[in-house]
Design goal:
By secondary structure, this protein is an all-alpha fold. 78% of the residues lie in helices and 0% in strands. Helix 8 packs across helix 10.
Length: 297
């Protein structure tokens, strides 16, 4: 009786191996898709590759061969020059502190506002969300003079606090608009179950809503950090002293009126984007989860 059983098991195992093997066979469409994805990735990375090549060139190499060749004599001169002349560690610390505080406060305000508008069902919530959406469409140039006057009177002009306040409000407006749409479709059965169990509003938010929407919140956090890091116009208008300026402002100082050191500018640009790339890599899993969750939603 054991022989037929053994033969049947062997046959089943063989069929399983064949099935697994057939599942790993790629069709021509799969290979074509893979090739297109690789080409697309190279196109997206091309500016970064060119930037990295020119960051390690000498001025003579750049003038002789142009920007599209590998450095003949690799050097760190451009990076060292920008590091020292711009006091990059201080500029980096300023950008990091501002971006991190704005990301944290922006996410916090977005969650609280969205919870009130999407789940709390505040009276007139649709009109409030509409006003927030219209505020998001307002150009930053229109905000400069009113904010300048207000912060000048308050005594916080030319401080990092002014930038933190501005971008916390700006980023939280976008976050409120996005999260309100998500929370408005939050399953009512879960909320009712929490209420029956005696949960307060704060407990419902912290123990029920936040764990479920954590992936979406992580996406907002990453976006807020990167967007604030890359901001230039408002920091340029509100940060006058060198001790409070950010990395994008240090980059603008390299562009002279008549001449420009292309290799040093490439090195400075490379230094300025490395932190955001590292930040993205750290939160990549959460970012992908949030995007997938939003797509399923």
């Amino acid at each position: 009786m054991q022989a037929p059983t053994s033969q049947a098991a062997d046959a089943e195992a063989s069929r399983s191996r064949k099935t697994n093997k057939s599942q790993h066979i790629r069709t021509w469409a799969d290979w074509m898709t893979l090739v297109l994805l690789i080409v697309g990735a190279l196109i997206m990375l091309f500016p970064l590759i060119i930037l990295a090549m020119n960051a390690f060139k000498t001025i003579a190499d750049y003038n002789a061969t142009g920007p599209l060749t590998l450095p003949a004599h690799p050097t760190m001169r451009g990076i060292e020059s920008f590091w020292k002349s711009s006091n990059f560690p201080l500029k980096f610390l300023n950008s990091f502190v501002i971006s991190l505080v704005v990301a944290v406060l922006g996410v916090l305000l977005s969650v609280l506002n969205s919870f009130a508008l999407g789940i709390g069902r505040v009276k007139g919530n649709r009109w409030i969300i509409l006003l927030i959406m219209l505020a998001n469409m307002m150009p930053q140039e229109a905000l400069l003079y009113p904010l300048y006057t207000m912060f000048k009177e308050a005594g916080i002009y030319n401080t990092q606090l002014s930038i933190i306040i501005i971008f916390t409000v700006v980023q939280s407006a976008y976050g409120t608009y996005l999260l309100s749409a998500v929370y408005s479709t939050f399953p009512q059965a879960i909320l009712e179950a929490a209420t029956i169990d005696g949960a307060t509003r704060w407990q419902t938010l912290i123990k029920v809503v936040l764990p479920i929407s954590w992936s979406t919140i992580s996406v907002l956090f990453v976006f807020f950090f990167v967007w604030t890091w890359n901001e230039y116009m408002i920091p340029m208008a509100f940060l006058m002293d060198d001790s409070v300026q950010t990395v994008p402002l240090a980059l603008s100082a390299l562009q002279g009126q008549h001449t420009i050191d292309a290799t040093q500018l490439a090195a400075a640009s490379l230094l300025s984007i490395i932190p955001t790339i590292i930040f993205y890599i750290i939160f990549q899993r959460k970012l992908n989860q949030g995007i997938v969750a939003g797509a399923v939603k």
